[in-house]
Design brief:
The chain is mainly α. It has one domain. It contains 15 helices and six strands.
Length: about 375
Amino acid sequence: MDYSFYQHYWWFLVSLLGALLVFLLFVQGGQSQIYQLGKKESELNLLFASMSKKWELTFTTLVTFGGAFFASFPLFYSTSFGGAYWVWMLILFSFIIQAIGYEFINKQGNLLGNKTYKMFLFLNGALAPILLGAAVSTLFFGADFVVNKQNITGFGSNMVISSWQNPLHGLEAVGNLWNVCLGLAVLFLSRCLGNLYFINNIEDDEIRKASRKWLLYNAIGFLLFFLPYLIKIVLKDGYIENLSTGVISVEPLQYLNNLLANPWIIAILLIGVVLVLYGFICTILQSQFIYGIWYAGIGTVFTVLSLLLIAGFGNTSYYPSLVDTQSSLTIANSCSSEFTLKTMSVVSLIIPFVLAYIWYVWYSMDKKTVKQ
């Protein structure tokens, strides 16, 4: 287990956290449909009661994802979070108003009124998936930054390691149609998962009927945006680092090459896609089938995990610079020291126990479905 092993190990863990985060966006997907699925006040109460049990998991996973990136790949953290701060601030702001919404929506005499807090939840549900999807897409399509590693050992206020070359500081990501394409794909996917979660968790015929109807529409929207994006990724050029010289150059079909070099990632991708489609189709066609969230949820984790793996494996630049190719980040040139990665790897051995605890808490919450 050399330095390269620990680098790839931590890229796998960060990718897994990112994949889990996308799955947990079902809460945002549900919030974005509250006015479509809840026609009566009693139905809205059921929807909020169902989502209120899970919303904290999404925010906690987002913070953990950012923390893991900071600890294992600090140069990415300082470059993206420090440079593209407007898009990350908007994402965090959307989660702040979500927390405010759930805290005050059912309190008597709340300051802004019940409708305002419902709107907070709707805005978080609509904006967070799009912004997160656009931000993640920059791992493939790049961003406007320059890295000067010579300043790492320097002193003084002018010793800036990473500098952003666009005055929009991250908001320019939405100017790339492919970034927007992934953002919309994540939005529709989160709405599909929200529909599936309500069908599984809420024992109400009207909500389940409406959720199945909107699942069909959202699944069509998801496929219309995700399939072209997936094809684009597989066929596009990437940036690859020569580990001997440290020089980064353009490599045709790099992401396809990563897939072909790692058949196990292809298997994860195919299994993920099949599980997602199975969860969608069975739920739409079988009125008594309520377990689609588990098939599509696991499929979502597998699919997103495979895409994030090919973004960093094979000496690929997982964060290309659009203004200076040699500033592009790879898992080799942006990671923590070998000692840090080794130490954190020992701590990471408790992750299975944490996941088991989360599963137990989830199971305990959902022993009984939400109903009138």
